[in-house]
Write a structure and sequence with these properties.
A hairpin with a 4-residue loop joins strand 7 and strand 8. About 40% of the residues lie in helices and about 15% in strands. It has about 700 residues and is of the alpha+beta class. The strands form five sheets. Strands 1, 2, 3, 4, 5 and 6 form a six-stranded mixed sheet that branches. The chain has a five-stranded mixed sheet with strand order 8-7-11-9-10, covered by helices on one side. A five-stranded antiparallel sheet has the order 12-19-20-18-21, with helices on one face. It is elongated.
Length: about 700
């Protein structure tokens, strides 16, 4: 249970379900009544906590690991003066309370032996097997003697790569950091602040992404106390002043229990006090706090269907706040979290937030990946060292094309992280990119055109999607379609969007420097920056200039026959250049100076403007002549010979080019505007289809704006 549920006055849990209380464990004496220099019964605390979750676990390997750890660390002391063995014992006890399996606990007891004692990895492998050896190696720090200032970033890189093959590596690291943070008071203030900042920027986001809320919430409180001591003390005072706040929630909780009994739903209703950081955030959001703001109600049931039954009863018997409803069961978070969130108003108008989940969901919500036990075990039989964890995960991925979805311990964000870190050889680039990546706390899923999916951070653009799908081949990306509509590469994607990336078939000029303004993923940023560094001549942004015609070609054709008759006798008839109407378009006309009538298509924006000015329309109808003039706009992606191919198609259709204008490229997109003389208006649809079929052209439309040259 997270730090949110540490209230000793909260209703007791169902018999047989161990209570996870990390703050109590942090204060408890680990060694029992024996003298600290003997440590004979210390492992008993771990064994008791482990058996609570795994009654049939074989404890012999834990005893052997403890004996090796205690003998190896004998004579070593922590800065607090305690024997060093108290640290691996505390880390292991944290994991045992969260339900970690035997292999993880064994590695946790030994996690500092290779780093701080004469024990070698070969000895660990020979005594405890490859799996324990892999976990111990994964959390072993790199030496500053060898790596200097890069030791910390490279150590995290090493741990993350190891986590990609076995997520239990990071579980041990998080528990290790939690105990170190609990005992950080013996260090100098500047060192406390440095460790707290790394914890805030890297470890807490990793705990959130792995779903280990029990560790995340206490780490947040410990960091809060170090980095913001004044706000921490103010929040602590507010909580102390509202010590009786549980009474307000208690009344609503009792009402909820009564509703559940009457509905025949077997449910536990618990009060979950908020931890310090949560109270601080609520206070910043709402200002003055009410009694019900200091906690939430937790309703635990047996089956998924019961969750929705509880929700229905709550929304029927209480006044719900619909804006607070979230369904993380139908759409789980990317960190395995599942729950229903709602809020209801009590009889006195007080509002209580309610979490509804099954017991299994609650276990996963608190312990995250730790609750999965050994996710790489081939069977449900007794725990063994099993196969190499990396090979087990690779086999899992080979069984399913979407490997990161088949293996819940390697979600999309971790796969992306492992991919981009390979392209960041510089420790500073890796460290900066890692913190930026972990700062993205929400993830979206977009669908590829081929039916696959891409997991991306919220706010990702089409550029991010391109590099996520194609890697460095995305340098050739020239556009995208989002939900079937053409979109610029800077377009932000939303959860559930369908994106089709368009790649140039010819040799591309490479990514634009402007792309860096739109990327959110380190993989895309690193790939683009690397290409621009290798091609400095292409990295200069184009000079700012007004959009002007890049090329204009004019042919001297005869004056178009005006095939329109107006209701104004004797008037000269002109076809508007803004919309170039042709038969059989619905048209209307307006009188202009000189007694002339200008003919517009009825949907032309100019028609609405003139009617808004009180100009009276004049009736217009088409005559018998077939020849017409029209202005077409072709939207395309830039490529060699595009202009030649378009003009060839136009000539083949028998149309004469009166004028042509090509605008400067923008985001690799080019606009061509052609005013054409057609021998027969009936051939216009076929001409437009032929122009759309030219490679690189994605749309051809009639002009809806003033033509460049008419």
């Amino acid at each position: 249970m997270s730090a949110e549920a540490t209230n000793p006055d909260a209703p007791s849990r169902r018999r047989g379900r161990p209570r996870i209380d990390l703050r109590r464990l942090g204060r408890a004496a680990l060694l029992g009544p024996a003298a600290r220099d003997r440590l004979p019964d210390a492992i008993g605390h771990v064994a008791e906590a482990h058996r609570a979750h795994h009654p049939d676990a074989d404890l012999a390997i834990l005893h052997r690991a403890y004996v090796l750890a205690e003998s190896s660390h004998r004579g070593q002391f922590r800065k607090s003066g305690e024997p060093y063995i108290t640290h691996p014992l505390a880390v292991t006890l944290i994991l045992a309370e969260l339900g970690a399996e035997t292999t993880t606990l064994t590695a946790s007891l030994l996690h500092d032996t290779v780093e701080d004692t004469e024990v070698t990895l070969d000895q660990v492998r020979a005594e405890f097997g490859d799996e324990v050896c892999y976990l111990v190696d994964g959390v072993t720090k790199l030496e500053k003697v060898d790596y200097g200032a890069a030791a910390e970033p490279e150590t995290f890189r090493k741990m993350l790569v190891a986590t990609g093959n076995d997520v239990r590596v990071m579980s041990i690291k998080l528990a290790d950091r939690l105990h170190n943070m609990r005992t950080l008071g013996v260090m100098r203030p500047e060192k406390q602040a440095r460790i707290a900042k790394v914890t805030r920027d890297v470890l807490i986001p990793l705990a959130e992404r792995l779903g280990v809320q029990a560790l995340k919430t206490e780490l947040e409180d410990l960091v809060f106390a170090i980095l913001h001591p004044e706000e921490y003390e103010r929040t602590r005072a507010v909580i102390a002043e509202n010590a009786d706040a549980a009474d307000a929630l208690g009344a609503i909780a009792e009402s909820v229990r009564s509703v559940m009994r009457e509905a025949g739903i077997q449910a536990e209703v618990l009060i979950r006090p908020r931890h310090f950081v949560s109270v601080h955030r609520v206070r910043l959001k709402r200002g003055e706090l009410r009694g019900t703001d200091f906690g939430r109600l937790l309703v635990l049931v047996g089956e998924d269907a019961d969750c929705y039954a509880v929700l229905g009863e709550l929304h029927t018997c209480f006044t719900p706040l619909i804006s607070e409803f979230k369904d993380f069961i139908a759409a789980p978070k990317f960190n395995l979290y599942q729950s229903l969130h709602t809020a209801v108003a009590g009889p006195d108008g007080s509002v209580a937030e309610v979490l509804i989940r099954t017991h299994q969901m609650h276990k996963v919500a608190e312990a995250g990946v730790i609750a999965l036990g050994n996710p790489y075990a081939a069977t449900d039989g007794p725990e063994t060292d099993g196969p190499d964890p990396g090979e087990a995960r690779r086999q899992e991925q080979s069984d399913n094309a979407d490997g990161e979805r088949a293996d819940p311990t390697r979600p999309g964000w971790l796969s992306r992280l492992l991919e981009w870190q390979e392209s960041a050889p510089d420790p500073d680039t890796f460290w900066t990119s890692l913190q930026a990546d972990l700062a993205e706390d929400r993830e979206i899923t977009v669908f590829r055109a081929d039916g696959g999916t891409l997991g991306l951070p919220a706010g990702a653009s089409c550029v991010d999607a391109a590099y996520a799908q194609y890697g460095e081949a995305a340098h050739a990306c020239i556009g995208a379609r989002v939900n079937g509509r053409l979109a610029t590469l800077s377009t932000q994607l939303g959860d559930g969007d369908t994106v089709q990336l368009l790649l140039a078939q010819d040799a591309p000029s490479g990514p634009s420097p402007e792309w860096l303004e739109h990327v959110r993923t380190p993989a895309a940023r690193i790939a683009i920056s690397s290409w621009l560094a290798e091609h400095p001549e292409d990295a200069k942004p184009p000079a700012a200039a007004p959009r002007a015609p890049m090329a204009t070609a004019v042919t001297a054709g005869r004056r178009a026959a005006v095939n329109a008759v107006t209701d104004l006798p004797g008037a000269t008839v002109r076809l508007a250049g803004c919309c170039t109407p042709v038969p059989p378009d619905a048209v209307t006309g307006f009188a202009v100076r000189g007694g002339a009538v200008t003919v517009h298509r009825v949907e032309c924006p100019a028609v609405a403007r003139m009617q808004g000015l009180g100009r009276a329309p004049i009736g217009v109808r088409w005559g018998d002549a077939a020849e017409c003039r029209v202005t077409l706009v072709a939207e395309s992606f830039g490529r060699p010979r595009l202009l030649a191919d378009l003009t060839e198609v136009i000539a083949t259709a028998g149309a004469a080019i009166v004028s042509a204008m090509v605008e400067p490229p923008s985001e690799q997109r080019v606009r061509h505007t052609y005013t054409l003389q057609l021998p027969d208006a009936a051939g216009l649809p076929g001409l437009m289809r032929a122009m759309r079929d030219v490679a690189g052209v994605y749309d051809v439309s009639r002009a809806q704006h003033p033509a460049g040259t008419t």
